[in-house]
Design a protein that fits this description.
The chain is an alpha/beta fold and 214 residues long. The chain folds into two domains: 54 residues, Potassium Channel Kv1.1, Chain A, CATH 3.30.710; 97 residues, no CATH class. Helix content is 51%, strand content 13%. It has nine helices and five strands; from the N terminus they run H-E-E-E-H-H-E-E-H-H-H-H-H-H. The radius of gyration is 26 Å and the shape is elongated. This is BTB domain-containing protein. It comes from Gymnopilus dilepis. It holds the Pfam family BTB.
Length: 214
């Protein structure tokens, strides 16, 4: 009885793992919604793979950059501009900032009383974030808060230095996990953001630390 060669080789079942990989890839590329997703929001910010539906009026109230951004024609596209892409009927604004920094920024604008106690020390990482976002988006009180903390703990007079030193290395900066690393970060911040007045005290802090360690 004649036979077809294909009859001797049953068709292979399709590989499900390939389909699963494609589904996983699609899921990974689908943006997630953050805690800051308000039904009344009239703009959607996206940082990395996370979206925030917030209010133009809130952002514009604090940031001159967002004020200018929302005043641009809808047809203009690019970093930080309102494009013609819509999410839930609202314009999408792509940001190139780390998602945790945008989340931190919005936590201040929306949840200051619930999540932040400005009387307590602030970590160097948070201070760095305030400086970077404050200057990028022209949010004045972000920059002022960061500078006040850096300048307080790096005084320019002997009397102020003795007052701060009586409490240890820092008063308004902390908690500190890696003292030497934070000291170097502060020196880098001073150079990057043009804050030369804190450099003498910052270098002195660093020298004192290594003297004590050794």
């Amino acid at each position: 009885m004649p036979y077809d060669e294909d009859d001797c080789h049953p068709a292979k079942k399709p590989r499900l793992d390939q389909d699963e990989d494609e589904n996983d890839s699609q899921s990974a590329s689908c943006p997630s919604r953050s805690e800051y997703w308000f039904k009344t929001g009239d703009v959607v910010l996206q940082a990395e793979n996370t979206q925030f539906r917030v209010h133009r009026e809130i952002l514009s109230r604090h940031s001159r950059v967002f004020t200018d951004t929302f005043g641009m024609p809808q047809s203009k596209e690019g970093e930080g501009s309102c494009s013609e892409r819509l999410v839930d009927g609202q314009p999408l604004v792509d940001l190139d900032d780390p998602v945790h920094e945008i989340d931190y920024m919005l936590s201040i604008l929306y949840d200051t009383l619930r999540m932040h106690d400005w009387t307590k020390p602030m970590t160097v990482i948070r201070i760095s974030t305030l400086l970077r976002l404050g200057k990028k988006y022209e949010i004045d009180f972000f920059v002022q808060e960061a500078l006040q903390r850096l300048c307080f703990d790096h005084p320019t007079t002997l009397a102020a230095w003795e007052s701060v030193s009586a409490h240890g290395f820092y008063v308004r900066i902390g908690p500190v996990d890696n003292l030497a690393k934070d000291m170097v970060t502060i020196i880098n911040l001073a150079n990057e953001h043009s804050i030369p007045s804190i450099l003498p005290a910052a270098y002195l802090h660093l020298c004192m630390h290594f003297t004590l360690v050794n």
